[in-house]
Amino acid sequence: MSAPSLERPVEQRGARPAILRDRPGAAAALTLPLLLLALVASVLVAVTIGAADLSVREVWWSIGDHLNLIDADLSVLRDGIVWEMRLPRVLTAAAVGAGLAVSGAVMQALTRNPLADPYLLGLSAGASLGAVLVLLTGLAVSLTVAAFSGAMIALLGTLMLARSLGVITPSRTVLAGLAVSSFAGAITSLVIFWNTQGDSYRQILNWLLGSLAGADWGTTKVAWATLLLVGIPVIVYGRVLDAFAFGDTAAAALGINVSRTRWLLLGGTALLTGAMVSVSGSIGFVGLVLPNAVRLVVGSRHRLLLPLSALVGAIFMIWVDTGARTLFEPRELPVGIITVLVGAPIFVLILLRNRERA
Amino acid sequence: MTTVPTSLGARLEVCGIGAEVGGQRLIDQVSFSVPAGAVTALVGPNGAGKSTLLRALSGAGPRSSGVVLLDGEDLYALGRRDRARRLALVEQEVRSEFALTVRQTVELGRTPHQSLWSLGSADDETIVAQALERADAAGFAHRQLGTLSGGEQQRVQLARALAQQPSLLLLDEPTNHLDVRAQLHTLRLLGSLAGEGMTVLAALHDLNLAAAFCDHVVVLADGQVRAVGPVAEVLTPELIGDVYGVRADVLSHPRTGRPLIAFS
């Protein structure tokens, strides 16, 4: 019993630097507050960028005025551009990016598949279907509830299909997700085809490609409430995902309640994805690429991976969306096109790097 | 000399364990007991149910009936975490899709000892370092798991199990894919762990390894126990012929006097 403390000195002290070296934890923990700062800075800088010719000072006046920090004299129009358009859009983008990145990281761990994300398992397609049904057929349900229900049904469909194929394995889960995703996508197309004419077609297309153009304070509230009420608990509880590194049996043998953990976390990601899709449409590759990129830098331990993914996802989304609304002025690009344009090559790089390692 | 402290050896009593997967009964009414502080080999033909039994015993795999007593304590009546502090399972050929270092893998063994909020104590670090050393994996603790040979990976999984500080260690084919030297090393290590009081149950394919290094043997065939007892009493030509359908002669090892099985 007393052996460790008595015998420890020489060797243990010698080993100390090595412990620090293969424990990026200490160093990486510092990146957490740094990224938090970067996120705040990104919000503040991104709202100053845009088509309307506003000075940085005017933008600050508007925000300061609304927060009752200063008493600024700004025209209603100019004030509205900042307060009613840019700020809620930037804040929504941040929450959507964080939510999708966390969902992706959790699903990758649960399915033991670095390529898993809300899109691959059919959640986004299900959420889109739910949302399109509400948008086009006038069902008396809120968009968020419909999108969440769609995501959850798609998730259940994917997992039940995977289970009926036998023991749930990563590849079976992904194949089942592909089937569910295609099916939900086809029904969505059918609903759009029957119900859409003229202008609304363009609107729906915009939404299906993933766009934050419709962001306002309402979407900001939905996205942030879900992120805080669901995303934060998922990030905290997600620490147990470390034990899933070697599969379900290994996790169970380490004392983890595998099925409870799986359903809690999958339910959480369905909620997150549903809420984010209801706000922004399907924005691809965020849940796939960012957690993998973060993993390359800080390793696979979820106590770091999940919060860092959330922060990097938020920052990434803010800047990609800023690009989407300003790069091709006066035309605005659906942000989903940019995330795929940026994400696909990064994804290929990750694949190539993993191959070298293996 | 560093040792991984364990609770003192525990006698394992298995009573009527059965397991079904997909409606198919893989093991049925399996009962045997294993003495404390000894290495027991679990042998039997492919498909006999060895892996299913080990998983069921660990509480991590499917199980439809039966009781397992560890030192008189009902394992399945314990909470998951309590159980994971008493026994550890080393599975066959485990892989991770994600990049983990050897040390991070071994740290997973501390999971049942930590709460959701804890960050890992200095004790945990000491125990992990000792487990690494014990399993002869300290030399490559900083390396990525994916860069290791099969034998090295096996040692890492063993170190992970030792970090759990179990009194019962279950291993599924721990010598699979190892060269002779690594096989002997692994079995000697199991022997010395048992010598310190750990109870070890290892599924083995190689009957000669079982005969040379294990104290007791449990023979499983078609999901049922065929024989249990000291190696020299159980591994007879009749039993081997009966269970495996091969012709075998049991000789005496010229140096150790232990059974040596020759096939023809």
How would you concisely characterize the structure shown here?
The complex is a heterodimer of chains A (358) and B (264). Chain A is mainly α and 358 residues long. Chain A has helices spanning 3-7, 9-21, 25-46, 56-66, 76-110, 123-137, 143-164, 170-195, 199-209, 217-237, 248-253, 258-280, 286-298, 302-326, 335-357.
3D architecture notes:
The complex is a heterodimer of chains A (358) and B (264). Chain A has 358 residues and is an all-alpha fold. Chain A has a single domain, classed as ABC transporter involved in vitamin B12 uptake, BtuC. Chain A is built from 15 helices and no strands. In chain A, helix 7 crosses helix 8 (170-195). The two termini of chain A are 41 Å apart. The model of chain A is unreliable at 1-24 (pLDDT under 50). Chain B has 264 residues and is an alpha/beta fold. Chain B has a domain at 12-95 and 165-263: Rossmann fold (3-Layer(aba) Sandwich), CATH 3.40.50.300. Helices cover 32% and strands 27% of the residues of chain B. Chain B contains nine helices and twelve strands. Chain B has helices at 50-58, 80-86, 102-107, 122-134, 150-163, 180-195, 207-213, 231-234, 237-244; strands at residues 12-21, 24-34, 39-43, 65-70, 73-74, 87-90, 168-172, 199-203, 216-221, 224-230, 248-252, 259-263. In chain B, strands 6-7-8-3-9-10 form a six-stranded mixed sheet, with helices on both faces. Chain B has a four-stranded antiparallel sheet with strand order 2-1-4-5, covered by helices on one side. Chain B has a two-stranded antiparallel ribbon with strand order 11-12. In chain B, helix 4 (122-134) crosses helix 5. Chain B is globular and about 55 Å long. Mean pLDDT of chain B is 90; it is low at 1-7. Chain A: Keywords: Cell membrane, Membrane, Transmembrane, Transmembrane helix, Transport. Chain A: Belongs to the binding-protein-dependent transport system permease family. FecCD subfamily. Chain A: It is found in: Cell membrane.
